[in-house]
Each structure stands twice: as C-alpha cells, then as structure tokens.
Amino acid sequence: MRKAWVLLAVAIAVVALASAVTLGAEAPAYKDGSYIGYVANDRGDVVIEVVIQFGRIVDVNMINPDKPQSYKHEPAKALFREYPLMVVKNQKAAIDAVSGATQSRNDYMKATQMALDIASGKYKGNVFYGLAKNPVNGNTLLAVTVAGKKVTKVEFITKKSDYDTLMPAKGADYGSKAAKEFFDKFPELAVKAQTDLKKIDAISGATHSYHEYLYAYENALKQAGLL
Domain 126-227 belongs to what topology? Predict the structure, then answer.
C-alpha cells in the first residue's frame, strides 16, 4: 500500500513539473536589460525604451516625440501618458483601439513590440538603435545596421519636428568646429572599429559628444548581441 502511495506521489510530481515547463514555455522569455524600439514618422520618429527586469516589463519610457501639456491634440496626449502604464500592467505591446489617436497607438505598439522582440530573441530585423539620453541638448540616437556579426552602417537619427527630443543634426553653422567634425566622422569611425570601442578616439573639444556617441553605439551593439 505504501509503495502505491509513493508511486502516486511521484506521478503527481511529474505531472506538476510537466505543467510548469509547459507554462514556462508559453510565457515570453525576455532577457533583462533596456531595449529600444523605433518607428519612422515624418511628424517625429517614435522611439520607445522598454526596461526588462527578472524577465518582466518593469518600465516603458516614451523617448520621442514628446507630448507636453501644451500639445493640442488631447487624445494623443492622453495616450502618450497612459500607454506605458498599460504595457507594464498587461505585459504586452498591444492595447485596445483609441479614438482620435489611431496613428499614435499603432506606432507605439510597433515600436514597443520591436523592443520586446529584441529582448526575447525573436527580432528578425538587422537594424538596432542605441540611445544616450540628454534632456538638455537632445537625445543621441544611432541606427546600427548589422550583417551577421559585422557592423555595416552607422547613422544618426536626428530631430525632425518641434516636439522631437532627439539631438539636432550638426550642420555647417554649428558653433563648435570640433563637435561638428566628430559628428561627421563618428559613423565611419564606428564601422571601422566594429566592437572594439577603444579604437574610437576622442577629438579635443568634443569630449561630451564622444562619451554620448560611444554610449549610444555600445547600447546598440549590446542589443544586437555583439557585446
């Protein structure tokens, strides 16, 4: 009789373990870290940062474009504030339709899903976005194209509209010659250096830019699995 009870207990344990494994397989396996999702938009590219801890979405940061209190379209402004809370609560990018903010909803979902796909290893694209936050002078955003294990292209994504929080492009009239020179040269330097960040030398007079660009590039490489 005792032997029968032992066998029954073992059988129950095996079933429970199998169920746990099955449930675990169904749950999204997100790797901890910060991931950037991006959707191009003529009115301001959508950039969203998703933070994963212990395999769960713990924070969603709406990087670009901003929808401040002065923003006139109320449905879009409300969604801008509420969307991060919805994602964290529901642990997914998709939300119900929002009247008056369809385009914003679609872009937010696409950008967030991209970040989640990178976090879960399901991302099929070959462009990764690196971010260095700077609320004063504008956030640095780099698009890094990867083929296999090789970086083939690096480019800056810069400010397009008044509500953009991204760094403006450094044109010919930019005040600092050194910063302008480094802005122009960095993509080529990054491709040449690949993953050896020490090969990218700073330019005197552009130290701040150097650290921000390098941080953004490193951020993209980590998401691409190259670091």
Answer: Sufe protein. Chain: A (3.90.1010)
CATH code assigned to 31-125: 3.90.1010.20
- pLDDT tens figures, 15-40: 444 444 444 445 558 999 999 999 99
CA 107-110-111 angle, to 5 degrees, is: 85
Contact in structure between 146 and 158 (CB atoms under 8 Å): no
Instruction: List CB contacts of 222: < 8 A, sequence separation 6 or more.
Output: 33
Q: Is 95 in a helix, a strand, or coil?
A: coil
**Omega before residue 187 within 30° of 0, cis:** no
Name the pLDDT band for 12 (thresholds 50, 70, 90): very low
For residue 212, pLDDT beyond 90 = yes
User: Residue written as tokens 């879960």?
Assistant: 120
User: In whole angstroms, what is the distance from residue 105 CA to residue 102 CA?
Assistant: 5
H/E run at residue 88: helix 74-90
- Is residue 141 within 8 A of residue 129, CB to CB? The reply is yes
Residue 221 tokens read as 């490489």
pTM for this entry: 0.86
